[in-house]
Design a protein that fits this description.
CATH architecture of one domain: 3-Layer(aba) Sandwich
Order of helices and strands: EEHEHEHEHHHHEHEHH
Largest sheet: 7 strands, mixed
GO molecular function, one term: hydrolase activity
Strand content: 5-15%
Radius of gyration: 18 Å
Keywords: Hydrolase
Protein name: Hydrolase
Number of helices: 10
Pfam family, one: Abhydrolase_6
CATH topology of one domain: Rossmann fold
Number of strands: 7
Distance between the termini: 40 Å
């Protein structure tokens, strides 16, 4: 897609740092993290194609992890972001790792990236895809009513938050807005279930973080991630679920900062005198 159509916000000064959200999310999920990084970095959070304010590709156009990777690469080139730091959650984490494997990142910090699940987890994702496809065909008012039922709200808290009983998790819901046949979420879920990150060299500093209470992409996936990205610094984020920016934005920001600093030190050493 035309990278000029990708919506974003940008704050701070310093070396560029691009934040990539997960499937069905939007750039605002990074707000609490962004505020903790703008003192040292030029922080850009984007709406991935089909989410937030960025339109989706047409139904006959490619739409998967690889096409989104090329879209983000084009966005970086358009805005003059040469090998920026990247941070991503879930789908956004996969895109960040793909860009890093292609030499387009200065550093990568990813939180529960897709592409490392075992067979059982992939079956679960395919099941979610079938349910989303079925739900998309229901009338809007009925979908909204179902999403507000106590069982659906409880399931959303368990799936997405580290501590489902915390006050901050009370407002967690499964989003149904835009859940229609052919909607971006419905199109992308089966693509995520099929996607595997293929091992190859990733030359820049990498941190892979998994919330120990992630019930969407299980923490056991970290074993596969380390096997395929053996130079990665592996971190378990205690008490966090699949969206750690909501559960612990302070720790998320600090892990991003650590990885960026590691890369910046190496960048400074290589700089010609």
């Amino acid at each position: 897609m035309d990278p000029a159509r990708i919506a974003y916000e940008r704050h701070g000064r310093g070396r560029p740092l691009v934040l990539l959200h997960g499937l069905g999310d939007r750039r605002q999920s990074w707000t609490d993290v962004m505020h903790r990084l703008v003192d040292a970095y030029d922080v850009i959070s984007v709406d991935l194609p089909g989410f937030g304010s960025t339109p989706a590709p047409m139904l006959d156009e490619p739409y998967d992890v690889y096409s989104m990777t090329e879209d983000v690469r084009g966005f970086c080139e358009l805005h003059g972001l040469e090998r920026p730091h990247l941070a991503g959650n879930s789908l956004g984490g996969s895109i960040a790792l793909e860009l890093a494997a292609g030499g387009a990142a200065g550093s990568v910090t990813v939180f529960s990236p897709a592409g490392f699940s075992d067979r059982a987890a992939r079956l679960g994702m395919r099941t979610v895809g079938h349910l989303a496809n079925a739900a998309a065909r229901l009338p809007t008012h009925l979908k909204e009513q179902l999403a507000e039922t106590p069982p659906a709200r409880a399931a959303a808290r368990v799936a997405l938050r580290g501590d489902p009983s915390s006050p901050g998790a009370k407002a967690t819901r499964f989003g149904v807005q835009g859940l229609e046949p052919g909607a971006p979420y419905v199109r992308m879920v089966p693509r995520i279930a099929e996607y595997t990150f293929v091992q190859r060299p990733v030359e820049c500093p990498v941190t892979i973080v998994w919330g120990d209470r992630d019930r969407t992409l299980l923490p056991s996936s970290a074993v596969h991630a380390y096997a395929r990205v053996p130079n990665a610094r592996m971190v378990s984020l205690l008490g966090s679920g699949h969206i750690p920016m909501a559960d612990d934005p302070v720790a998320v920001a600090e892990h991003i900062r650590w990885t960026c600093r590691s890369a910046d030190r190496g960048h400074a050493r290589r700089r010609p005198r």
